[in-house]
Amino acid sequence: MKLKGILIAGGVSLLTLASLAYAADDKLTQLRQQGFARIAIANEPPFTAVGADGKVTGAAPDVARAVFKKLGVNDVVASVSEYGAMIPGLAAGRHDAIAAGLFMTPQRCAAVAYSQPVLCAVEAFAVKKGNTKSIKTYDEIAKDSKAVIGVEGGTTEQKLATAANIPTDRVIIVPDGQSGLKMLQDGRIDVFALPLLSITDLLSKAKDPNLESIAPVQNTPVQCDGVAFRKQDTALRDAFDVELKKMKESGEFAKIVEPYGFSAKAAMSTSREKLCAAKN
Ligand code: 6CS
Predict the structure, then answer these.
(1) Ligand 1 atom nearest to 194, measured from its CA
(2) pTM of the full predicted structure?
(3) Are residues 89 and 131 in the same domain?
(4) 36: domain CATH number?
């Protein structure tokens, strides 16, 4: 009786494990059959970009496309989303992954399954030339009762502004980088905050001699993203990480990210575990 009992119990647990394993691999099988992975992006060069012809580029989609190809998923199909809507969209099944420079924070790490790090960046401010209010940090904005900062909704810059206790009536939420720069040019905000490479791209396109950048913003951390998957898709995430690691070791990863201005070394010298534990 005892042996039979063990066999039945054993049989059930093996069956359960097999079905769990099948379900986990199911997502990768589904993407292979679908022929593409639906990714959320923000259209914030050089992290992510959508050309006039609709072509999706940027360091994050290019890395994701290369890794998915090695997993037998031929391409990525991108949809533009505000940062604050990306994780809800992933959870709702509108995206298969987020490849947008969505930096790892403890809160986001609790909500998604991140790959290992891909793109790392320092924080920057875009300000009027001469920085009339001589703003250099989030704390200085908080202390100057007349200073107004623009940030995009759901971003780490919004989080940094909140952490510096800048009153909400002096934190203006803008939909995208171009709107933020326009508000700065029109004097409706004194500072527009994004990662340095994004600010540099915006300023280079605006060609406005009255604007300049301040970077790195003092007392802000270097932040890194990873490709974000649904919590239940850890088998897909793990398979992604295996190929990402090979690309980092072969030099292929650096060949993709460094022409965009990102440091491969920065991403390779940290880890998801460290970034998800960071108190920033
Ligand atoms: O993850 C974020 O919130 C940040 N990532 C990018 C690429 N831009 C906005 C924000 O800094």
Answers:
(1) 11
(2) 0.90
(3) no
(4) 3.40.190.10
In a domain, 219, yes or no: no
**Same domain, yes or no, for 109 and 129?**
no
Residue among 198, 199, 202 to mutate when testing ligand 1 (max atoms within 8 A of CB): 198
Task: Kindly report, residue by residue over 218-245, the tens digit of the pLDDT.
Answer: 999 999 999 999 999 999 999 999 999 9
**Contacts of residue 143, Cβ cutoff 8 Å, sequence gap at least 6:** none
| Cα(198) to centroid(ligand 1), Å | 9
Q: Which residues line ligand 1 (CB under 6 A)?
A: 44, 47, 83, 101-103, 152, 155-157, 194-195, 198
The contacts of residue 59 (CB under 8 Å, 6+ apart) are 46, 47, 48, 101, 118, 119, 256, 257, 260, 262
Q: Which of 68, 60, 59, 67 is nearest to 86 (CA)?
A: 60
Domain count, the chain: 2
Separation of CA 218 and ligand 1 centre (Å)? 17
pLDDT in tens, 178-197: 999 999 999 999 999 999 99
Taking the centre of ligand 1 as the mean of its atom positions, its distance from the CA of residue 223, in whole angstroms, is 9
